[in-house]
Each structure stands twice: as structure tokens, then as C-alpha cells.
Amino acid sequence: MAHDHNHAHGLTATGRHRRRLLAVLSITVAVVLVQVVGAALSGSLALLADAGHMLSDAAGVFIALLAAWIAARPASDLRTYGYQRAEVLAALANALVLVVISVVIFTEAIRRIGVAPEVQTDIMLFAAVLGAAANLVSLLILRGAQKESLNVRGAYLEVLGDLLGSFAVIAAAVVIMLTGYYPADTIASVIIALMILPRAWHLLRDVVDVLLEATPKGVEVQMIREHILSVAGVVAVHDIHIWTITSGVPVFSAHVVVEDAVLSARGADQVLDKLAICLGSHFDTEHCTFQLEPASHSEHESHQHA
Fold first, then answer.
1. For residue 56, which of 4, 41, 86, 101 is within the disulfide window of CB 3.0 to 4.6 Å?
2. Which residues are CB-contacts of 296 (< 8 A; sequence separation ≥ 6)?
3. Axis-axis angle for helices 221-229, 265-283 (nearest 10)
4. What is the value of pTM for the model shown?
């Protein structure tokens, strides 16, 4: 006897925050344009690097919005979970874009070692300060949503990196203004490139965990097993599987062995409700499927998982 307690497929975590992402996208695109013009006029590689990083952020937010729209499409017989996994694929693309951008910036910075072209620090400083202010606004917009979605978290981390990058550009501009040390611009470019990589790695690792259907963070299988066994009438549990379809959509399934007497219509329904309530309240997993098996049949079961 199988039971799925919750069949709803509502908005994904990213979909619930589309307005926030649209606001950040608009701000980021506007600042990118200003910084590209500023880099061209000032000759600053650091400012161009920061603009490139922000452009990758804008691309990532756009991909996240596109994925949220695709993920909202209804499920079908061919895709029983709909397109919700599209958000994870978008996060993967976002992480890879970050890696490419960092490598390009780092390579160009290396090429400039030993060559220190003059930089118009007033334009450089103005554009960097404007970028920092825009990043602060974007962080405030995303702060409340970044814990719910991989894509929103990716955007949040990218904006945070942009803010640090803007600070690096500001510091380089101030150093050049006060000392005339033009290599500070190249050094800032290297710093920006090195800041991007760790964030890309963390995002990529989270995406891979979802694609490999790893147990969600913070969920302990042994503790779940103990809670299930504490339900009256339950004898044993096996073939436990916990994975994530997309951000905020954990899924659980298990084979639950119960006393033969429990498998009356009313008894089975009570056990299933208790199990579903247990999973939903203790582990924030509402989409759960249980296969009830009589204890007398357990010897015929082939266990695929503990």
C-alpha cells in the first residue's frame, strides 16, 4: 500500500522571489553600462573586471528568472515533476559562467604585469563608488530570500562578491591618486578574479549535490528512521530515500513494515497520517511517499537501501 500525502506543485523557491530578482537585474544592468563606459574612459582594468563580474551576475539573474518561468509549467505524464529541475540547471550554468569570467579576468591581469598604463582615477573612483552603492541596494533586496533558493543564493553571493570587488577598485583608485602607483589597478583585478572562484565552487558543489540526489543538508536519515519507528504499529522501515527536486522541494520515500492488524482501511490511514505529520513537522518534508507492508510479507521484500 503506497501513499503520497502531498501532490501539490506550487511555485518554486526562485519563483516566489521573481520581483526581487527583476529589481536586482535592472540595477545590475544599469551599473554595468556605467562601469564599461567608465573603464573605457579611465583605462582601468580593475573597473572593467568589476563590470565583467557584474555582467555575469546579470546573466545569472536572467537565467534564474527564465528557469523560474520554465519551472512553473505544469507536470505531465512525460515529466511527472514538471520542469522544476530547470532551476538547478540554471544554477549550474551560473556557476560555470563565474568560473569562465574569473579565468578571463585573471589572464588579462597577468598580461598587464610589468605594464602599468596610466589610469584616470577620478572616473574610475566615481564608477566604483556607484557600483558599490548599487550592490548594497541589491544585497538588501535579496537578503530575505537567499536562504530559500539556490538561484537567489547564487545571485546574492555574486552581488556580495561584486561589492567586495567594488571596494577593491575604490582602494586601487585611492592608492593611485595618493601615490601614483599604477600597478594597483592590476593588483585589484587579480583580487577580483580570485574572489570569484570560491563562490563559484560553493554554488557548483550545491548544484552537484542536487543533481546526484544527495540527502539535503541538515537532514539525518538515522533520526528520521527513529521517528518513523516511534509511530504505533510500525515494526521496521527500509529503502529510505531523501533527495531534492529543486530548491525548497525536498522529497522522501520509504517502505514501512507494520503489524498485520494495522492494514485495515482505518488503521492504515491513521498510520499514514501520523507518518506524514512526523516528516512534515520534524524535517520540513511535505512531499513524502510511504509503501506500507505487512510484517508477514517482509521476508519477500528485496531491500534496495537501508
1. 101
2. 260
3. 150
4. 0.69
Alpha carbon distance 101, 103 (integer Å): 5
The third-level CATH classification (topology) of the domain covering 215-300 is: Alpha-Beta Plaits (3.30.70)
Cell of 242: 531523501
Q: Which fold has domain 15-211?
A: Alpha-lytic protease prodomain-like (1.20.1510)
Q: What are phi and psi of 207, to 5 degrees?
A: -65, -45
Tell me the CA distances in angstroms from 22 to 68, 74, 97, 163, one per residue in order: 12, 23, 20, 19
CA 72, chain centre distance (Å): 17
- Residue spans of the domains in the chain: they are 15-211, 215-300
Kindly state the cell numbers that stand for 178.
595618493
pLDDT digits (tens, 9 = 90+) for 85-132: 777 887 788 788 778 878 887 887 777 777 767 788 888 899 989 989
How far apart are the C-alpha atoms of 89 and 63, rounded to whole Å? Answer: 9
